Amino acid sequence: MKSRSADLSRVSSIAGIPTQVLQTQCFFHVKQPSLGASRLCPLQLFWAVAFGPGATGRRRPGGGRGGRRPRRSSAMGSRSSHAARIPDVDSIRRETGFSQASLIRLYHRFQALDRNEKGYLSRVDLQQIGALAVNPLGDRIIDSFFPDGSLRVDFPGFVRVLAHFRPVDDEDNGNRDPKEPEPLNSRMNKLRFAFQLYDLDRDGKISRHEMLQVLRLMVGVQVTEEQLESITDRTVQEADEDGDGAVSFLEFTKSLEKMNIEQKMSIRILK
Questions:
Q1: Hey, which end of the chain has fewer CB within 10 Å, N or C?
Q2: Which helix (H) or strand (E) element contains residue 45?
Q3: Where in the sequence is the domain holding 126, given as residue range(s)?
Q4: Domain of 228: which CATH number?
Q5: Handedness of CA 249, 255, 260, 266 (dihedral sign)
């Protein structure tokens, strides 16, 4: 019988996920996958939501179709006028930390995905994104935009999710008022977001079954069930400090304390 280490190496090779990442349950990795869109990692799938091609077939005001952006003016006032069209833009900027330029870019993206000009996105709208449609993790990514069983997400909710992937910079740490809520892109909030992608039943713990489900989605059918179960058992056992057979959020954070989460869960273009 092969050792657990051999199983781990095999899954690591197939999934394009470093073994140390598998060992510490980090759901986000930055290594480029070799298995096409059906095996893009979650970080790359969120990139596809924010910047990928829009669904085609919708005629946009001003003549464009689909995800095509309106032509930019070189005038300084043009950016301000675009920002003025975003509802509650100042409040969204304060909450998410996004620059005006990023919010405008994301608003155009939101409009491109909102094919019927409803003013919100449904699950069907996000399912039109090609990378999500063909990836086994697509439903988990889409679920994160619809917490508590909601059926629609407006623009503030859309950018609130993506704000978890905004890179942390010195300004975030140096100018923050301690009385204000913790930024959405803080290390702890990034970890909370990653944890809920594992915690399928939202009970505050990652069970062995949930870990196995996610790992199975990540590697597909190219490894045996025995290998997957071996890795799942090892991963849960190493993180489970209280011996209850599951991984709590505190145990999850401890297992990742040496990992650069700010790098693993950041999309550099989101500023």
A1: N
A2: helix 42-51
A3: 4-264
A4: 1.10.238.10
A5: negative
